[in-house]
Write a structure and sequence with these properties.
With about 100 residues, the chain is mainly alpha-helical. About 80% of the residues lie in helices and about 0% in strands.
Length: about 100
C-alpha cells in the first residue's frame, strides 16, 4: 500500500517540478487514485513521468497510472522470462536424468 506520508513528500516535489502549488485537494485526489499501488511503484511511475512529461503543467493522474501499468507489464514480462528459463533448465535436467538410466 502507498504510504501517505511518503506520497505527500513525493507529491510536493512533483508539484515543485511542474510549478504547481500543492493543495489539499491535489494531495487527496491523487492519493485516492494511487493508494492501491505500492509506494515503490508509485515513486518509480512518478519519476518516469518527470522524465517524459514535456509541458509545464502538472501531469494528470492518468499519466501516472499509465506508467504504473507499463511498469507492471514490464515486471510481468520479466517474470515470464524467468519462468521459461527455469522450465528449460528443468527439462534439460530431466533429459540428463533419463539418459543416465
Amino acid at each position: 500500500m502507498l504510504s501517505k506520508q511518503i506520497f505527500i513528500e513525493y507529491m510536493t516535489g512533483f508539484c515543485e517540478i511542474f510549478n504547481k502549488q500543492p493543495s489539499e485537494f491535489i494531495y487527496s485526489a491523487y492519493y485516492e487514485i494511487l493508494k492501491g499501488y505500492s509506494t515503490e511503484r508509485v515513486k518509480r511511475a512518478m519519476m518516469a513521468c518527470v522524465k517524459s512529461h514535456k509541458y509545464d503543467s502538472l501531469p494528470k493522474p492518468a499519466e501516472i497510472l499509465q506508467f504504473l501499468e507499463i511498469s507492471y507489464g514490464q515486471q510481468m514480462r520479466e517474470l515470464g522470462k524467468e519462468v521459461i528459463r527455469q522450465m528449460k533448465q528443468y527439462e534439460k535436467e530431466a533429459e540428463q536424468l533419463e539418459h543416465k538410466k
